[in-house]
Amino acid sequence: MSTFEHCAYRMTFPYWSTRGGDMTKTGKHATAIVLTLAALAMTPFGNARADVPGNGALKIIVPFSAGAMIDNIARKYAEKLSPKLGRPIVVENRPGAGGMVGTQRLLAEDPKQNTMLFVSSSYAVNPSVFKDMPFDTLKDLSGVALLADTPILMVVNPDAKFKSIQDFVDKAKKRSAPYSYGSAGINSATDMAGRYFSSESGAPLEHIPYKAVHEGMMEVVAGRVDTSFPGIAQALPYVRDGKLQALAITGKERSPLAPDVPTLDESVSPGFDYGIWYGVIMSAKTDPAVKQTLATHLAEINKDPEIRQWLEGQGLTSRSKTLQEFDAYIASEISKYGKILNTPN
Fold it and tell me: Domain 153-266 falls in which CATH fold?
């Protein structure tokens, strides 16, 4: 047994979700490692704790409801991050306005509290959707870690008899009426995928928004909608059962989960690259050393075989970027979504 294992004992801290000032137990638990002073002086965790100053629990804000994918990711990473920092981590759900409520909550916190915000790619959509935002995404906030992403499948009903994605595009251009696509709502990630595909391929599409991506996908299964753009993990079971046909994948690379499905980049739209990503954001006023420490720990967690296996089970691929690379990536994503939203649908 290592020195660390001799000097540590395990305590279980419940995760708590805070809504409107009330704290309710979620039923999930973070495991924190409580060390003796001697162990703190002898282990890397002691150094990490010194680099993230303060006592008590660190906070993670999730700008969506409990059970959302980004919420699940936040809790999974909190389990791994807590022992590295030697402190419990509290997960606080602040849903609303496409993530804006949670982001404003982060900016209301004292930067010295080192609160983290776990976000999805909708974070980069908001600057183009909300014209009078009370903050500047690129100036008031900064990226800490890109954690994972997932490509989207473009699916159709097999009875439509499309031979390929090129066949779909060719037929769409010749039709008097556009093909329809179902999404999880206006300006959702799946709506963005449909808009982006239409603008880049030249295939006219009519948007039909639903309350959830699954609803739009099932309308394709039923034959009432022509296509949709669900996440790969959602769509694959229906593709494998023969209820849907996957025409293309939106990522830059083919997915190991569906290696026979071509990318849009290689088939009909060179340069096409679209997916849903997940990452960690902090106030731009946070101590750079703290951000670097957390970025290093999160990158280490991304290499954990257990985390990689869990991500793969969700249809996600582990990703990593430096602080500067992630900030540049966010800026490029904001620009990309701005162009998509300004393209007539």
Answer: D-Maltodextrin-Binding Protein; domain 2 (3.40.190)
In angstroms, the CA 240 to CA 177 distance is 30
How far are the Cα atoms of 26, 72, 302 from residue 291, in angstroms, in the given order? 27, 22, 16
Note down pLDDT in tens along the chain; length 345 residues: 433 333 332 333 334 444 444 444 444 433 333 322 333 333 344 444 446 887 789 999 999 989 888 999 999 999 999 999 999 999 999 999 889 999 999 999 999 999 999 999 989 999 999 888 999 999 999 999 999 999 899 999 999 999 999 999 999 999 999 999 999 888 888 999 999 999 999 999 999 999 888 999 999 999 999 999 998 989 999 999 999 999 999 999 999 889 999 999 999 999 999 999 999 999 999 999 999 999 999 999 999 999 999 999 888 999 999 999 999 999 999 999 999 888 765
- In angstroms, the CA 281 to CA 144 distance is 5
Q: Is 31 helix (H, G, I), strand (E, B) or coil?
A: strand
- The 10 Å CB-count burial string (b at 16+, else e) for 84-96 is bbbbbbbbbbbbe
Dihedral sign for Cα 162, 163, 168, 172, please.
negative
Dihedral sign (CA 314, 309, 87, 107): negative
Burial environment of residue 300 by CB neighbours within 10 A (0 to 12, 13 to 18, 19 or more): middle
Residues contacting residue 34 through CB under 8 Å, at least 6 positions apart? 8, 9, 10, 11, 86
On the question of a common fold for 58-149+277-342 and 153-266, the answer reads yes
Q: Which CATH code fits 58-149+277-342?
A: 3.40.190.150
Nearest one of 269, 286, 318 to 76, comparing CA atoms: 318
Nearest CA to 130 out of 330, 338, 340 is that of 338
